[in-house]
Amino acid sequence: MKRRMHMEAYSSRELLCIPGKNKSYAIETAYVTELCCQIQLSRIPCMPEYYAGVCSYKGNIIPVIKLHSEEDPGEDSLLLAVSCGKYQLGILFTGDPYILPAGTAETVESPADMGDSGIWAGKEICRHEKEILFVIDMEKTVEGLIICQ
Domain spanning 7-147 has what CATH number? Predict the structure, then answer.
């Protein structure tokens, strides 16, 4: 059975892209609050592996999730502060993020089950030049974190 690929311009929103070793992620910029460096993390014992800890962000204590669960926070780690509804969280990652302007990525039709990406719920898969981007569905991801997968 052949899998049909349908592509269309992803034109609704800008994406903040985070290239990774095995998988590159993208988040709609509407959810992004701030990109922070030199953050002070406090670890919490007995939490799942994907939690890096908590940090103080503008007077609030927010949970910090590792983008790639195998990465350990280092001096070169960045924190992407995101808001989804009334919830805030930090996404910890290493690498050089970049903004992909609206209309420059193509949506690739993917199977109903886009595969396991850990805690990150997928919204869609996009292609920009030769890079494949896994666009995170922030609403479903936050909902999954609240329910404690």
Answer: 2.40.50.180
144: DSSP letter: H
110 pLDDT exceeds 70?
Answer: no
- So what's the pLDDT on residue 7? 35
Tell me the C-alpha distance between 143 and 111, whole Å.
Answer: 22
Q: Which two tokens stand for residue 86?
A: 């009334």
Q: Which residues does 74 contact at the CB level (< 8 Å), separation at least 6?
A: 94
Mean pLDDT of the 59-72 span? 86
Burial classification of residue 86, based on how many CB atoms lie within 10 Å of its CB (0-12 exposed, 13-18 middle, 19 or more buried) = exposed
Contacts of 5 (CB under 8 A, 6+ apart): 108, 109
End-to-end CA distance of the chain: 33
